[in-house]
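Supplementary Methods. Inverse-folding protocol.

Structures were first reduced to a discrete structure-token string of length 331. This string, shown here, constituted the complete conditioning input.
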């Protein structure tokens, strides 16, 4: 690794750490850095601040890091697989499948036990099952389809079918259920408690582990599938592992936080621009740091107004201009 890359990694790591501390400190009640450090070493004097910090802000900040890293790495893998700079983690219909699962639970609430619907796990289980069903279908198709473009179209079609079913459900649902579903689609980092973190963290780590295992194969795919075959890379197996890793990363995050737009498309381009390389050995950790930083910035911004903004609103304000810039640059 070049000295420039090492310096950039060090700067990005410090920047991410600074944002993490700022996210913990910022909010309707300001908590000083000294108080944060005191709480972490078990010497916090203010019980209310300790409660806010440990049970609300800390899991939310960790979720921002996990979501940013997961969606960015999933986006990078999708862009490499399809060799399309505008591919995103949700391109295979994972988000649409998760949305359908949540819509079924929210809009079928009259037929389900109240205790099940009112528990936070209901939506997570529903979103996970919805995303998994679409993922299994895409994986099944990946064995039959021999090129990435056809797989892309199949994924989009599955997403379209799931989206259509959601629209049908909305048409027959009451306004309260529709409002709850729309609120879920805005995304929320604060929904992840420590109990949920015990499930989310392993899912994300497994997904990231698969991505790092694939880094050499991803480099081979950049040169084209025929060239990759010449290097002895199994295209079908590699494509299957990429789809599974993307499903774990994008599906896991969507299940726990709701869909978060534009991060997966924009961050890989920022990482490539900063590090000026297409080597996944550098790009994977770079996208993790860039993604974590962006989501932390978005989370800090959502706390500025009196009322907390949805994370999707802020991430779109960052992501959409980057996509427009990409399109203008490529003409």
């Amino acid at each position: 690794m070049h000295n420039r890359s090492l310096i950039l990694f060090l700067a990005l790591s410090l920047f991410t750490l600074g944002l993490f501390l700022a996210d913990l400190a910022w909010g309707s009640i300001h908590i000083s850095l000294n108080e944060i450090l005191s709480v972490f070493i078990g010497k916090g004097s203010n019980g209310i601040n300790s409660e806010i910090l440990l049970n609300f802000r800390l899991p939310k900040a960790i979720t921002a890091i996990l979501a940013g890293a997961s969606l960015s790495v999933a986006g990078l893998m999708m862009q490499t697989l399809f060799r399309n700079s505008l591919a995103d983690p949700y391109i295979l219909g994972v988000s649409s499948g998760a949305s359908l699962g949540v819509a079924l639970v929210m809009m079928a609430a009259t037929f389900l036990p109240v205790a099940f619907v009112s528990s936070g796990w209901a939506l997570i289980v529903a979103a996970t099952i919805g995303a998994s069903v679409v993922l299994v279908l895409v994986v099944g198709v990946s064995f039959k389809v021999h090129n990435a473009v056809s797989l892309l179209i199949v994924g989009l079609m599955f997403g379209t079918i799931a989206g259509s079913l959601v629209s049908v459900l909305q048409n027959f649902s009451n306004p309260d259920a529709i409002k709850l579903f729309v609120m879920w689609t805005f995304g929320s980092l604060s929904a992840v408690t420590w109990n949920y973190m015990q499930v989310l963290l392993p899912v994300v780590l497994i997904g990231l582990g698969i991505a790092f295992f694939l880094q050499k194969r991803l480099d081979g795919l950049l040169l084209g599938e025929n060239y990759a075959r010449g290097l002895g890379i199994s295209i079908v197996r590699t494509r299957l592992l990429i789809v599974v890793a993307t499903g774990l990363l994008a599906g896991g995050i969507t299940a726990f936080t709701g869909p978060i737009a534009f991060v997966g498309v924009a961050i890989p381009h920022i990482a490539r621009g900063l590090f000026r390389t297409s080597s996944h050995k550098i790009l994977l950790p770079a996208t993790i740091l860039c993604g974590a930083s962006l989501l932390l910035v978005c989370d800090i911004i959502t706390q500025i107004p009196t009322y907390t903004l949805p994370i999707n609103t802020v991430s779109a304000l960052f992501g959409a201009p980057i996509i427009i810039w990409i399109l203008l640059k490529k003409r």
